[in-house]
Design a protein that fits this description.
about 170 residues, about 35% helix, single chain, 5 helices
Length: about 170
């Protein structure tokens, strides 16, 4: 099976705000069965998310990218540093549109994130995953992520960690 080479470009928030919201909301549906947590009780979740995304992209250039397949955006990655240890990378979002899932494309997203974290001199990376999202859990384990168990402050999700290879 030949895999299409994907292109990773910084998110253009002026043009792609709605798409970012759509992707993030769908990620909540995949993880928790509903986008309710994303939109929050006050209904301002999308607005707060866009403010956070803009700030993240200003603080760490190239940390938030859209995944392009030819002339179509098919996914999104949001990365940064873990707030408890800046030598550890943190993935806020790995996302592919439903029609592009289970085709081997996620490996390229994982590889892109590892290269990004190498450029920040991170020795490992972390992310959260809902154990209910069995497809995601299987993918991460297959890519070498280790399940560290439930987060103390959010037991509905598990921390996963992966060593970042040094060049």
């Amino acid at each position: 099976m030949q895999t299409t080479k994907l292109d990773f470009q910084p998110i253009n928030l002026d043009q792609e705000r709605d798409l970012c919201i759509q992707f993030r909301a769908d990620a909540f549906v995949c993880s928790f069965g509903s986008a309710g947590q994303f939109y929050q009780e006050d209904g301002r979740g999308a607005e707060k998310y866009l403010q956070w995304l803009e700030q993240r992209m200003q603080e760490i250039p190239n940390s938030c990218v859209h995944v392009w397949q030819e002339d179509q955006i098919i996914g999104q990655i949001e990365m940064g540093r873990w707030n408890r240890d800046t030598s550890v990378g943190y993935v806020n979002l790995f996302y592919l549109i439903p029609t592009c899932r289970s085709q081997g494309l996620g490996k390229q997203l994982d590889r892109h994130a590892a290269q990004f974290f190498q450029s920040l001199s991170c020795y490992s990376a972390r992310l959260n995953v809902s154990p209910q999202n069995i497809t995601a859990v299987k993918f991460y384990l297959k890519q070498g992520w280790m399940d560290l168990g439930p987060r103390e402050d959010a037991p509905e999700v598990h921390f996963f960690e992966k060593t970042i290879e040094r060049n």
